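re: ur msg from earlier - yeah i can do the flavin-adenine dinucleotide complex, just paste it... oh wait u already did. ok heres what im feeding in:
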Amino acid sequence: MENKRSTGVIIVGAGLTGLTAAWYLKSKGCDVVVLEKNSRPGGVIQTFSEDGFIYEAGPNTGVLSHPEAAELFEDLAGRCRLETADARAKRRLIWKSGRWHALPNGLLSAVKTPLFTARDKLRILGEPFRRKGQDPFESVAGLVKRRLGKSYLDFAVDPFISGIYAGDPEKLVTRYALPKLYALEQNYGSFIRGAVRKMSETADERQKKATREVFSAGGGLASLTAALADGIGSDRMILNAENVKVKPAKSGFIADFMVDGRSCRLEAPFVVSTIDSMHVPGLFPFIDGREVSKLASLEYAAVTQVVMGYRKWRGMSLNAFGGLVPSVERRDILGVLFTSSFLKNRAPDGGALLSVFIGGYRRRELAEADDDHIRTIVYDEVRQMLGLKHPEPDIFRIFRYPRAIPQYFRSSKERLEAIERIEDSYSGLTIAGAIRDGIGMADRIRQAKAIAGSIAEKLTKL
Ligand SMILES: Cc1cc2nc3c(=O)[nH]c(=O)nc-3n(C[C@H](O)[C@H](O)[C@H](O)COP(=O)(O)OP(=O)(O)OC[C@H]3O[C@@H](n4cnc5c(N)ncnc54)[C@H](O)[C@@H]3O)c2cc1C
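and the outut:
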């Protein structure tokens, strides 16, 4: 790489957001360069293949909740294959009073389930007639208690929030953390009425691509990021880019950085950040400190993922997506995914691949425990909760994420407003990534595609 170069768009960060944005920009004929501080692209997505097991270090699966996620796989046809989960993934287990219970999936099971109290089951009949919430910053817990009752919060929403945000439903604000749920109440006055009305509305062909299906990529999620990186090309991807600093220039922005001890400079009319909020002030030192501090203060949940592979599974039936543990149960794990039950070739025949999650926003100290302590916790829980006399697996790996999942609390309003002001003040600058617009992989793909579309259009007008 020459030390000075100009391009159309500089993207900082080669995780799913940065790679998707760059791939779509390149597909539209735009000149783009990605700067990544690590020695590999993919960000938190990383897949390992070892002794007959295929396992993920970061996210395991996403949900095709936006058409853009399905479209990305269509656009990558021949280079990467969408893998949707086996029907078993529809069965979700919740831990209550010493055993697993399946989350109800129909009327009869909803009446019979011991997860919710008889009072709340009756009370739910009145949900369509309950008043619409007035507080735009109501927490997820507040909304669910008000509309459905506390047992639905404790044994459905709290574990669901653990599974997605590793977060605290008392602090997460619904309109930012679960915008579809917020819109359901605001637009239809009730979850039940909203769900019924939505079923009768006719979705166009594109909207039909948004489903609740669980996805991965054939061979693991790294084959998705590898396909994107290949498409972008190694000449447009600068790895090991250290100390990237951006400043405004006459015709856009200049990014200065170091690679292998050499100073490098890139110039472009557009720059997109997709990095962790904490590092945004360092990337854009020219932005008013009071404004960037509203971004940098975004809190993250710490998550430690323990992957365990068993050549021969001798525990309970793993005929489900996995199990989630409500916080009121006071166990030491957030949940466990039965990955080999619903994705292909993840474990040898007769074996099992599990991912156990520890910590979260409310139990950071557990996520930060040393390896021996983590091992003890996981063995104890697996022994008791999965009926395994001998919990020692054939492979055991610990992956730590001190800043795993951003938490969309009440301060999101100030953060989003600050991002808008910054982007208005510096034309050509975009602050993206999970700092806004959702934390899931489908959210990341949707945001990246939208950014690529908007920048490509502006580039043609320059
Ligand atoms: C443990 C875990 C489990 C998850 N589980 C799920 C799940 O089940 N389903 C789901 O949909 N989502 C899940 N997620 C979320 C999902 O993985 C993320 O939303 C998505 O992968 C984030 O992609 P990204 O590109 O925005 O960020 P990242 O993957 O974090 O990529 C950012 C990139 O920027 C680089 N970078 C940072 N600072 C700089 C700098 N100063 N200069 C240059 N480069 C820099 C980083 O090295 C990194 O490569 C999970 C996340 C974690 C951590």
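cool cool. The mean pLDDT is 96. ping me if u need the other ligands too
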